[in-house]
Amino acid sequence: MLRRLKYTFFLIILLANNALGQDPTFSQFYANPLYLAPSFAGATEEYRFGINYRNQWPSVPGVFHTYSIAFDKAMPNFSSGIGVLATYDVAGSGDLSTTNIGLLYSYDFNISQDWHIRPGVQFKFYYLGLNIYKLIFNSQITGSGTTPPLTPPPFDKVADVDFSTSALIYNDQIWGGFTLDHLFTPKQSFYGDETKLAMKFNAFGGVRLIGNTRLRKKMIEAFSVAGNFQVQGRFYQTDLGLYYYKSPLIFGLWYRGIPFMTSQAGDAIIGLVGVKTDNLHIGYSYDFTISNLISSTGGAHEISIIYEFTSFTIGGARKKIRAIPCPEF
Q: Which CATH number covers residue 34?
């Protein structure tokens, strides 16, 4: 993964004052659209609520869990969308945790009869935490085992603000965009050093090759090809995949680790299965490790739940949004 190429690299992050961290990555990119890009805020019929959970490397000692909760609302009469996104990531035996809570806004420009551009922004609060009582230091190791430290090394709480921006261009079949995250490069040192979180660049896009509908434009079958590229600090990652939707089931297959386009060549193959109804989308994916870590990580499990609904307002015509053709997982 972008942030977890090796377990030993995580230990270095814990112990080195000048280490630079990387963000967690969700394999189901479009099941967590606000995390992918602020431009997706409000890109729904009216209201959308989503929960995502990722269990990374369950066979490795310690935990690598990422949680995400999102809520957004379309404001088609203003060609806009707003949203709230909260993520919590915890890693390792010391419970090194990162919490982000952000507000998002997007605006949809109709540049022609077929094409739209949708820029977006996000302002967020960033907090870095650590349970120092779960760490073991050299002074605790004795011939008979370990002993608790008399006084844990003091450290400062890490809280900061951050900002990201994105842009998305799309028509009925093609979409593409980019995100620039951590533009404020929030601090991440527990001991007051000038250590900043590296900025992240994300480029994504795809094309829907088949799209069959019934009356009222309800999609009943679709086949899509999509890609996602990320770079943060010295690490970069490229994912390419296929989606096939036949109402109400969706299947996906991704490859992560394209040579010369990913720091860890041949990293993982990702399989996805999901159920999509008019209001509820549920997906499960598994990352099967194919690198030299195949026997020690246990892959990664990911679950997503999205619920879309309307306010059932009686009377008053409501302006319809232009649907973005990307998959929901």
A: 2.40.160
